[in-house]
Amino acid sequence: MPHDFAAFDTILAADRFADRHIGPGTAERDAMLRALGDASIEALITRTVPGAILTQNPLDLAPPLTEGEILDDLRIFAAKNQVKRSLIGLGYHGTVTPLVVLRNVLENPGWYTAYTPYQAEIAQGRLEALLNFQTMMAELAGMAIANASLLDEATAAAEGVALAHAVHKGKSTTIAVATDLHPQTRAVIATRAAPLGWTLTDIEPDDIAAIERAAPFALVLQYPGTTGGVRDLTTEITAAHTAGALAIVAADPLSLALLKPPGEMGADIVVGSTQRFGVPMGFGGPHAAYFATRDSLKRHMAGRLVGVSIDAAGAPALRLALQTREQHIRREKATSNICTAQVLLAVIAGFYGVWHGPDGLARIATRIHLAARIVAGAATAAGFTLRHDTFFDTIALETGAQTDALMARALAAGFNLRRIDATTIGITLDEAITHAELKSLTTLFTTGAEALASPLAPLTRRSAFMTAPVFHAHRSEHAMLRYLKRLEDKDIALNRSMIPLGSCTMKLNATAEMIPITWRAFADIHPFAPADQTEGYRALIETLSTDLARITGFAAVSLQPNSGAQGEFAGLLSIRAYHAARGEGARDICLIPSSAHGTNPASATMAGYRVVVIGCDKAGNIDLADLDAKISQHAEHLAALMITYPSTHGVFESTIRTICDRVHAAGGQVYMDGANMNAQVGLTSPAAIGADVCHLNLHKTFCIPHGGGGPGVGPIGVAAHLAPHLPNHPMRDDAGPATGYGPIAAAPFGSASILPIPYAYIRMMGPEGLREATSIAILNANYIAHRLAPHYPILYTGAGGTVAHECIIDCRGFQATTGIQVEDIAKRLQDYGFHAPTMSWPVPGTLMIEPTESESKAEIDRFCDAMISISTEIAAIAAGTMPRDDNPLKNAPHTAAELTATTWSHSYTREQAAFPLPYLTTTKYWPPVKRVDNVYGDRNLVCSCAPMTDYAAAAE
Ligand SMILES: Cc1ncc(COP(=O)(O)O)c(C=O)c1O
Fold it and tell me: Where on the chain is N6-(pyridoxal phosphate)lysine found, per UniProt (predicted)?
């Protein structure tokens, strides 16, 4: 190569993506290391990570690509997918994402980088968007209340089954499932039922006697049925009630714009996918499921629920209601492990409803129904018979000997149809169908035929839905644009300031990682499209799985779980299947440290395990003596230990290898919760610490944005002996081993459409960049601990006096001297423009701070300055210069309205309230509400939209 080309390449190579992803540059790193007294970053790492598990070997990954190169690389995968018009149905449909929503929500970091709205005051925008979603879904379903999303239709149905069992008064262990349920829904229910000893009985439509014979605790129905049939479900639902069961109906929400809703037929629970409300199919996900129920069951509902309350000034304000932290509170008694859900997708679906309104939805549904009638007319005119005379969007055609030829002709014309069986074809029409496509479809059969008359009259919807003003007020694009902006501006997301949430890893979600997910070749692929049309996805999945296997040190990876908690459940099922295959199925004890995340015990219970809690010592480490005692007490029944590493206390426990060895010696398996993987990548690995299986939260360490509470992806990696026991899927042979235990998610590869994000992250960082990111995450956390230590006690440190990638500061001491509680500090941070760190978890009265590698020293210093300034305010209260009951912390956050009101009667000035540090005069975030009253909201539970004035009046 000529000399100047080499020089060119050297300059080009200096332009590394890792330098954009990682916040602190060389000078900032040096300054932080000097403050810590470490000579180098390696010195800090050696002091922090136990030598027994620290590796110097570089990760076996491809060298880094630039942002331009990764897009070219992903285009190659995309080109290997074939985008056909998939009219397969089965719960996945072509849809049209309103472009104003696509650009301003799905492609907007103001929405996609937000965190779960636990801090309600800085999350009013997304809470309102979710309230819209809840209102829309409850009213479409004809139910009293709906939650703010679940993971997918199949798991939502399984959650309904769990609820039905929790409230069941009898002894039934039978789940009756309609034979016209989507097959993936049935399969997920079966996987969830097996470890709990529940069995499934198939029931033909309208077979009331079979329901009576089955005497189930739950009856699960599909509306319209999987092959398109629509029938009144009232008698089946009544039969379920007579048998003492709850009736769960999985319903297509768009059909409900025209059809009598299941709630009016007596259903207890209505679930379904809102994918066709503007969210692309994406080879299976992510999409938001909805879950709606009767008022009397609302306190048993899984997932998060947005409710209306008031703030400290009596103004209406939203916040998460009731069981927000269900698994944290109820742990192994929780009936569900759901944590991360599908908030961003629910927000999009909600905005789809806002954009179209009830009349728009009805128009779309009517158009789809007409398209189905037109195709049905052509098919019947050509002599084919319909399996169901009453249909909405799906027709099932008895095509006999012509089935193969018809399928082939359809494919040649660009359509994927569903082969229901050897002699039946399913065609599901959707919103995206064009005049030309419709013509092309009818010519598969005959031209010139009339559309069939609508068969829906007896089941026509009569009740109104989506009557709230929000569903009528934003029809022009300007109105919508401004509504979206207004909501976005109420919230703090990563595009405003760092979100230092411990255990949540709110790192950069780079633009280059996000761009490919809306490409048609990734977005418009049906999860059950023929395998030869999805080779690009397949290759992407294989490459990402290999990369993740190398990062974790494991033999195999399943990408199916669509959240961390789903990964936990999947991994525990792998352990369960492994023990059973060795004739040790009686092992059913799962050891879990007291510091574990609430999803751990909840998942263990779902996997049929008995949970035994292991204590922690004063340093926050697992109490080895207690571990030994519990192991010997339960040796014969020991199935697994679940452990988070570094621990949820934010330290690398030096005894980790010993802990794993002892569990193995007793015949148990080690499950590692990978939520804290951001402290491991490239420095050590789950395999190196001795684990057998772990989940990764790709929505933490691997850059999938948090989306305000989802989507997530929680793949599991397993050692070779567990590889035969991974999830698989009935609709795709290559989604897992033939010896697997069935699916745990509706789609074969879970939330496939967002896999380009972690793939791009890993490829752009390369092996060195990933190790560097981990090291800087640890440096940043230790620098914060160092700066805050004089003002707030650091609760736990490891053997070398350092923390891992996060630190816990103890705020409990302030209560006695000043009356200040940790919540006051969290709310005061909002006045400083920051989202609070994780509050009161895993230790009540503390804040857990995780800066990630993506925050610069300047941003970290700004946060530390804010925390130190707050500590000075606390000191003033302690010194008696500020009253205990009237100070900037107790009254936080402060709104613009109160600061500009005529009267100001506080012991401190308006300036102190709003601008306590100089940077705030130029970059001020204004909280839209004062502190939200949780108790009021739970006492007066309102979980759907109504004119806001109603709530204001109620508060007076
Ligand atoms: C330690 C730990 N384990 C498990 C989970 C559950 O993960 P997910 O929310 O993706 O279900 C979390 C989530 O924050 C966590 O912090």
Answer: 700
pLDDT level of residue 955 (50, 70, 90 thresholds): very low
| 102 DSSP 8-state letter | I
Question: Does residue 934 surpass a pLDDT of 60?
Answer: yes
Q: pTM for the complete prediction?
A: 0.97
Reported as a single tens digit per residue, the pLDDT across 258-290 is 999 999 999 999 999 999 999 999 999 999 999
Euclidean distance between CA atoms 790 and 99, whole angstroms: 51
Phi, psi of 150 (to 5 degrees): -130, -175
Q: Which atom of ligand 1 is nearest to the CA of 699?
A: 10
CA 893 to each of CA 313, 834, 870, 880, 949: distance values in angstroms, whole numbers, following the listed order? 11, 11, 13, 22, 23
What's the maximum distance between 2 C-alpha atoms anywhere in the chain?
Answer: 91
Task: Determine which helix (DSSP H) or strand (DSSP E) holds 831, and give its type and residue range.
Answer: helix 822-831
Tell me if 854 CB under 6 Å of ligand 1: no
Q: Kindly give the distance from the C-alpha atom of residue 561 to the centroid of ligand 1, in angstroms, as a whole number.
A: 13
Decide whether any atom of ligand 1 lies within 6 Å of the 388 Cβ.
no
Q: Which residue among 597, 699, 843, 852 has the greatest number of ligand 1 atoms within 8 angstroms of its CB, and so is best to mutate?
A: 597
Mean pLDDT of 214-233: 98
Is 70 exceeded by the pLDDT of residue 953? no
Burial of 93 (0-12, 13-18, 19+ CB in 10 A): buried
What single DSSP character describes residue 599? Answer: H
Confidence of residue 447 (pLDDT cuts 50, 70, 90): confident
Query: CA 346, CA 285: separation in Å to the nearest integer?
Result: 12
User: What is the b/e burial string over 487-526, where b = at least 16 CB atoms within 10 angstroms of the residue's CB?
Assistant: bbebbbbbebbbbbbbbbbbbbbbebbbbbbbbebbbbbb
Block residue for tokens 């929400």: 253
* Ligand 1 center–CA 339 separation, angstroms: 7
- The answer to whether the CB of 565 is under 6 A from ligand 1 is yes
In short, whether 692's Cβ falls inside 6 Å of ligand 1 is no
| One-character DSSP codes across 319-373 | EE-SSTTHHHHHGGG-S----S--HHHHHHHHHHHHHHHHHHHHHHHHHHHHHHH
User: 648-686, pLDDT tens digit by residue?
Assistant: 999 999 999 999 999 999 999 999 999 999 999 999 999
Is the minimum distance from the CB of 563 to ligand 1 under 6 angstroms? yes
> Are 81 and 522 in contact, with CB atoms under 8 Å apart?
yes
Tell me how far apart the alpha carbons of residues 611 and 562 are, in angstroms, rounded to a whole number. 24
- pLDDT over threshold 70, residue 135: yes
Residue of 580, 568, 566, 731 lying closest to 194 (CA atoms) = 580
Which residue, among 273, 262, 294, has the nearest Cα to 141 in the 3D structure? 262
The H or E element that residue 416 is part of is: strand 415-416
- Nearest atom in ligand 1 to 567's CA: 11
Cα of 712 vs centre of ligand 1, distance in Å, is 10
φ, ψ of residue 229 to 5 degrees: the values are -65, 135
- At residue 21, φ and ψ (nearest 5 deg) are -75, -40
Residue 451 or 330, more confident:
451
The tens digit of pLDDT for each residue in 805-820 reads 999 999 999 999 999 9
* pLDDT digit string, tens, across residues 561-611: 999 999 999 999 999 999 999 999 999 999 999 999 999 999 999 999 999
Q: Which pLDDT does position 325 carry in this prediction?
A: 53
State CA 845 to chain mean position distance: 27
Q: Is the CB of 561 under 6 A from ligand 1?
A: no
Best of 149, 339, 603 for a ligand 1 pocket test (most atoms within 8 Å of beta carbon):
339
Whether 661 contacts 643, CB under 8 Å: no
What would the pLDDT profile of 736-795 be if each residue is shown by its tens digit?
999 999 999 999 999 999 999 999 999 999 999 999 999 999 999 999 999 999 999 999
Q: Which DSSP state fits 197?
A: T
